[in-house]
Amino acid sequence: MANATLAARDREAWSARLKDLGFWAEWAALVGLVVLVIVFQVLNPTFLSAGNIASMLVAAAILIILAVGQTFVIATAGIDLSIASTMTLGAVAFGQAFAAGWGLPLSCLLGIVAAALVGVANGVIIARGRITDFIVTLGTLSAASGLALILADGKPVTIIDPVLLGLSTGGLGIFGWSFVIAVVVALVAHVTLFHTRFGTHLLATGGAPESATAMGISTERIKIAVYTISGTLAGLGAILLVARIGAAEPAANTSFLLNSVAAVVLGGVSLFGGRGTIIGPVIGALLLVALVNGLTLLGVSQFYQPLAVGIVVVLAALLTRFQR
Amino acid sequence: MNSKNRRAAAVGAVVALQALVLGACASGEPAGSGTRVEAAAGSGPAGQPRIAAVIKGLDNPFFQAMKQGIDDQARAGGVPVTVQAANSITDTTGQADKLNGLAGQDFSCYVVNPISGTNLIQGLARLSALNKTVVNIDSPVDPAAAKSANVKLATYIGTDNVEAGKMAGRRMTELLPSGGDVAVIGGIAGDVTSGARVEGFQQGIGPNLKVVQTVAANWERQTALTAATDVMRANPDLVGFFVANDDMGLGVARAIANSGKTGKVKVISVDGNKDALEAVKAGTLDGTVSQYPYAIGHMGVEACQAAAAGKTLPPNVKAPVEMITKDNADQALASTPKPFGTYDDPFKALIQ
Asked: Which residues form the signal peptide (chain B) (predicted)?
């Protein structure tokens, strides 16, 4: 968003710009990522080796997709706490269908549909029932994990499929297929948010709900749409997750929920809705993955990793206060 | 599924209680489903226990096997049993609430598998005050806390996690006679079980193996996969991984396969769940130290029976552990969830 105007500015504006906290706040995630990369590269030269970049990008793919889904919801001033459990449910639905011999395409479809339905349920209850997003998705967080446990009977299903294996290990150069999928998702999301009428309505719903309603925008339909998008993307994440670990497990995946919200906040998206980017959360997700990867490469004690993640998230949140 | 079983269990318990109140021994009402355990007609000497069990979350195959062991032995012995489980492996307070709920009912023997060393202390203190038999299985109740709250435990039955880690360490040393660098993938940072296994592994490895890195992967397969990939990148000469549970072990095996190092880097994990046994058989996993939650649950019920018969229980009983390798994976798979070897069960003799 900001960089379109950036290019048009004069050179003199640069020094002023660098002194302006607002500029730094806008690009907190990118600045953080660059600083981290430099620090880790200096401390450990393998950090920027092609192999390590490739494995970081693949490890970030699922988180990027979830963060994009979360961005849509947060841009309407909502929050989807059920995103990781929805992914678990999608993975389990996929696994059960695959084990029952439905074949790959149908199983994938079922996984995505199951997750999307959770999203639809979230949206309908929030919009029509006029209940706070936080409470509703807190409820579906529990309900979706419960459904996953019931469906799977608490047991993981091992899934061995050459196509899925190729999806998780193959790719174009250093870009694994799963990362390529994540980039495509991010591009589509970017276009949807900034170059379609739906995107404008969505941001209006988040920024000024009363005005949006007065303009004739159906905020209810927008709410239902964003939660459906979030659920669908969780379903897509579920397929990548199953491909990655070779099993559909009814495990909670709590770290994905926390990291998806953290990535969005790092990306400078306002939790009050109405303003945000897609590139921000994508960089936020990359930053979180790079942070853990770098600390692991350096052999930093396991006790310091959560502390480091927490500090980075809070610092970024502090920076966003200075956004214009 | 679970709630239905639980309801059936509750109904079963109520029916059994009524029968007892009526002075009859539970005389085999037609069972509805699952957990409802019938007493064989005509059985039931005076020393018949009424058992309640509180275990960890049933979202994990390990505890499902434990429940199966409890149910099977109860059915074989013709004693009624009610099994309650926490909602998840981290639900310490929910588990305490469940025990407190059961403590108010008329059971004579409680089998408990606490999530943490202290989360059930309050309920257990109440049970000890009522002079009920408490059998501690799998995860130990913290001895200092038990002492200060006057909790009296009849016996403890569980796997020695340090020993399990040692076995893995010895096996790793056998697999890698020329030595080298190994890494450890643990559970949640600071977790007691994970810590004990890792400590045991470090004691078990020979002098020419060196642990270069320990990473916490939160018991999650995906996190373990990512961590193992990074660790291999940081230490290109790595020759082995010790992983604190099977689920993460399978993630690490996947990471090794992805980097084309299958066979070059060895993986040994702990638990012995079915998927892992199959992976050992297929050669993607180089070994797992199998524990037998089924046997632990089974012995827990036997301990209750022995206590009800007025026998003195041994204070500390070690559950069987076996090192599963490619050579015996078939045997292990065939007898799962029971151990394939023989093991020492001191309670068997007491209830003959």
From this structure: 1-26
